[in-house]
Amino acid sequence: MKTRLTEALGITCPVIQAPMAFAAGGALASAVSNAGGLGMIGGAYGDAGWIDQQFGIAGGARVGCGLITWKLAEQPQLLDQVLERSPAALFLSFGNPAPFAPAIRDAGVPLICQVQTLRDAQQALDCGADIIVAQGADAGGHGESRGTFALVPEVADEIARQNSEALLCAAGGITDGRGLAAALMLGADGAVIGTRFWASREALVHPRILDRALSATGDSTVRTRVVDVVRGFDWPGRYNGRVLRNPFIQKWHGSEDTLKLEAGAEAARWAAAQEAGDPDVATVFVGEGIGLISSAPPAGSILENLTAVAQRCLTRAASITVC
Ligand SMILES: Cc1cc2nc3c(=O)[nH]c(=O)nc-3n(C[C@H](O)[C@H](O)[C@H](O)COP(=O)(O)O)c2cc1C
After folding, report:
1. Is 102 part of any domain?
2. Does any ligand 1 atom lie closer than 6 A to the CB of residue 64?
3. Which of 14, 200, 216, 254 falls between 20 and 30 A from 28, CA-CA?
């Protein structure tokens, strides 16, 4: 498939694999890039040693890296360390990218900014982002409240209004070829896909957690702050994370203030469950698209299937008779 995104990034499928914290290492990123998409290492909260190790595992494949912007602001020196690895792109989410944009531009690395609102998209355009990712609330992991279906075309219109050359990707709920085709119809140049690649052979996911997720439906997820409260992560208040409901989430969702008071004991219980992959207590960050997923094949075959189905959908759409 050829879009402005594939041309700009030198890839053959208009798909960027989301830089998922803890799950997207070098094996997943390189598998996606080697299959024609753009793979991203989930640098997330900025563990420099882990990021280095994952670039090593990617073994020279052309992969990018994602960082959580508000966390990067606490340790800005990390940016130079990542740029030294010559990433194929730098993907910033959740915070103001402006302080980091000049260094990324000077390094000649494409800047991808994931946004959750129109205002964030305007800020990303102002700082010269090469690719804007409009992320809707269906998405797995952190995000905000706007839906993918209206946010994506609204950002597309804003890019056009500003006569900007920036490219647009849709994110949130895009799980199969139908979603990829729909993203293109909404005015995006491609898609950022997380949950579908989280359930792949190469992702770093505990097998017990994966098993639980593969039997879930899209009804089983919820956006919540419970996870950040229990692990003591200081996320800005506007964001929360989409996770699979389990007894731990059911117990604390809506009672986060009480959880803060009991954080010590609950944090220990949660950390042990995370280690053991206990799906009743551990956190399973997945999007609503989990309801469309029932197996975890190699990332390359996921990508192949996504593009084949998207092509069929687009061909079918082109054959609809307009009266
Ligand atoms: C397990 C998981 C971890 C994630 N971690 C991050 C992250 O560290 N940084 C980030 O920018 N986005 C993160 N995301 C969100 C993705 O960037 C992306 O917006 C999302 O996966 C797209 O929606 P989808 O999951 O429905 O495909 C994460 C998503 C998942 C599922």
Report:
1. yes
2. no
3. 216
> For 283, how many CA atoms within 13 A lie in the half-sphere containing its CB?
27
Q: How far is the CA of 133 from the centre of ligand 1 (A)?
A: 11
Would 271 be classed as within a structural domain? yes
**Neighbour tally for 3: CB within 10 Å:** 17
Residue 268 and residue 305 in one domain: no
The answer to whether residue 323 scores a pLDDT higher than 90 is no
Say what the pTM is: 0.98
Q: Is the CB of 14 under 6 A from ligand 1?
A: no
User: Does the C-beta of 115 come closer than 6 Å to ligand 1?
Assistant: no
CB of residue 193 inside a 6 A radius of ligand 1 = yes
Residue 40 within any structural domain of the chain: yes
> What is the domain range of residue 241?
207-288
Output the residue whose Cα is nearest ligand 1's atom 31: 140
Radius of gyration of the chain (CA): 19
Same domain, 248 and 182: no
Q: Please check whether residue 234 is in contact with residue 74, taking contact to mean a CB–CB distance below 8 angstroms.
A: no
Per-residue pLDDT of 159-170, as tens digits, reads 999 999 999 999
